[in-house]
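Thread title: Can someone regenerate the structure for this chain?

I was given the following input by a collaborator and told the matching C-alpha cells would be attached. They weren't. Posting the sequence so someone can regenerate them.
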Amino acid sequence: MKHLSLSIISILTLLALSLGISFAHADVKEKESEEQSIASHTSTSTAASTELKQINADWQCEYCPKTKTFSGNVQVNFGYLSDDAYHFGHYSGIESNNNLFLSTKVNYLTEEGNYAKLSVDNAGLDALKLTTKLGYYGHYQFAFAYQEIPLRQNPALLTPFQQQNNTLLLPDSWQYLDQRTSTLETTTWRQFNSGVDWQKLTLSWRYFTDQHLDYAINYQKLKKSGIEQFSAAQILNASYLPLAIDEQTEQIDAQLSYQFNDLNINLSYFLSRFSNEYQSIHYENPFSSYVAGAEMAEIAHDPDNHAYKIRLKVNYQLLPASSLKLYAAFGQMRQNNSLLPYSSNAFLQQSLPSNNFDAKVATTDYALRFYSRWSSRLSFRAKYQFNQRDNQSEQFIFTPVFSETYLSEPLQNTLYDTKKQQLSLATFWRFLPSQQASIEFSQSSKTEQGISKHKTDNQGVTGSLLLQSETGAQLTIRASHFNRDAQLPMRLSTQLSDENPLLQRYNLAARVQNKLSMQLSKALNEQLYASISGALSKQNYQASSLGLQNNHRYHYGADLSWQVDEKTTLSTYFQIEDIRSQAKASDNGSLWRNDTKERVDSFGLTLDIKEWLDEKFALSLQAIISDGSSATTLSSPSQDKLPEINSVWQQFNLKFSYQINPQIQAQLQYQHQRLENDDFAIDYVDVNTVDNLLTFGAVSHHYQVNYFILGLTYQF
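Best answer:
Regenerated them for you:
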C-alpha cells in the first residue's frame, strides 16, 4: 500500500506539471496570434495612439498581488515510537517504532487563471491523504482525493478459529468446551488484531457556463476491510467470532445548478451501491450440540443493495429582506438477493417461501423555510419538515430455526415504516442595538410502525437572550422546555408476543425535557479574554414503570486566553461533565433500581510563541488531561455496587521549529500519550473465566508511549 501510494503521488505530480506546461504553451501561442492580429490592424495608426499603447503596456499595478507560477513545499519526517502501541495507530497510522513519511504541497497558477494543486500528507504511513485539483478559474475544475483511515480496536486477541474462504474452522483435535476435563490450552491459538481500514476515493468534475448554469458530477468509493468482533449464541452457550470484513460502497452524485438574479435552483440525482464480498460466514460450534446436525452454523452478512434519490433545492429572494427555501427529495432502496437457508442443520431444513427476497423501501422528504425581516429590530422565521419511510417489500410466511436447534412457530416478516412532521415558528427581536431576544415554538409528530404502532407528539418552546454591555461583556442565555406525549402501542402482528406495557423504548416513551445553558465572556483588558459557561439538561420518564426513569446532565466550563505580546499567546480551559441516570427493573416479582453516576474532568493548555530568539525560532505546546469514571449502585433487594469503570487520557505535544533560511525550516516534535482504561466487564473475563463463554481474552486499553518526529521542510 505504501509503494502504491508513492506511485500515485509521482503520477499525479507529473500530470500536474504536464498540464501546467500545456497551459503555458497554449497561452504563448494565443498571445502570439493576438500580437500578429494587432500589428496588422495598427499599421495605419497615428503616432499618438502608438505612444498611448506603449504607456499602457508599460503600466504595472502597484497593489495587485504578485503570483508565482510554481510554489509549494516538501516536508520529510522521521518518527520514532518508544514502544509498540496498537491503539496509538488509531487514525494516525503510526504503529511501528521507526517510520519515514512525506508531506508535500505543489501549486501551479498562470495569469490567465489556469491552476493545478497537489497536496499529500502522511505518505509512508497507513493514514495517507492525497488531494489534487486541476482547472481554469470560472470555467471548470477537476478534483481527485484519496484517504486512508485506520481504525484500531484491540490487539493480540486469541481465537481457535482458522478462516478458510467464508468458513471459520476449529482444530481437528478440538475438545468441546463444555466437555473438557483439563485446563484450556491456548498456546496454539491464532493471534490477531481487531480493527478495520477504510479507503476513500473521490473524483469530482465541475463546469461553469455563461448561461447561469453549472454542472457537477461527484464519484465516491468507500472500501472497508479488516476483522471485527462478533458474537453468536446457541441456547446457553456463546462464542466470540473473528468476523472478516470486505465491503465497499460506491456513490455518484450528478448536479445541475441554475442562478439568475434572486433565484437559485439545484437539481441532483444520487445513486448508491453497496456490495459485500461475504454474503455469510459459516462457523463450527465450539460447544457440544444439543441436537444432531448442529455442529455448524451460519451468520448472514449485510446483503448487497442499491439506492437512488432525486433532490431539488430552491432558494428565492422574494424581497430585499425576505427569502424562501424549498427542499424536496424522493428516493428508493432495492435489495433483491437469494435467501439463505433456514439452517445449516440438515435435519431442520425447510422449503423457503421464495428463492429471492425483493425488498423495496421508498423515502420522501420535504422542507420549507421562510424568513422575513420586518424591520431593523424584528424578524420572523417559519420552517416545516416532512419525512416518510415506506417499506414496500413483499411479505412471506417463514419458519425460522432457533440456534440451529429447533423450529419456531411460523411468522410473517415485519415491515418497518416511519413518518415524521415538524413545524416551528420563531421571532427575533433586537430591542436595543446590542441586545437580542428570540423565542421559537415547535411541534412534531412521529409514527413508527412495525410489530406495533407507536405514535408520539412533541411540543416545546425555546428562548434565547443575548446581552452586551458597554464594557464588552457578553451574556448568552438559552432555555427550552419540551413535552413528549406517547400513545400506548397498538399491536399489529398477531404472530409475535405483545410488548411489555410497563417497559417502553426510551426514544418512544413519554418524556419531559428541560434544558438551560449560559455563557458569560469578557475582554478583561486588551490582552486578556475570559469565558465561563454552564449547562444542564433534565429528562424525566415518569410514565415508564420499568426501564430508564430519568437522566440529568450538568456541564461547567471556563476558558482563559492571554495575548502576552505580539508573538506569544497562552490559552487554557477546564470543564466538568456530570451525568446521573436512574433505571428500574423487575426480577421474579421483586422491583429493584440502579443509579449510575458518570463524571468527566478535562483540562487543556496551549502556548504559541512565534519568531522567538532572532526571529528564527517558534515554539508550540499543547497539553490535555481527561479523567472519567462511572459507578452503578443497585438499590434493591440489596445495596450492591458494581465495580467502577475508570479511564485516564493524557496527551502532551511540544513542537519546536527553526528557520534555517527563507526556504528551509527544521522541526522537532515530541508527543507523550497515555491511555488507561479499567473496565471490569472486559478485564476480568478471559478465555478461562466462564465455562459457557468463549472469548478473545481482550483487555482494556493500557499504554504509555513517547513519539519523536524530526522534520525538514523546503519551501519553493
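DSSP finds three helices and 37 strands in the chain.
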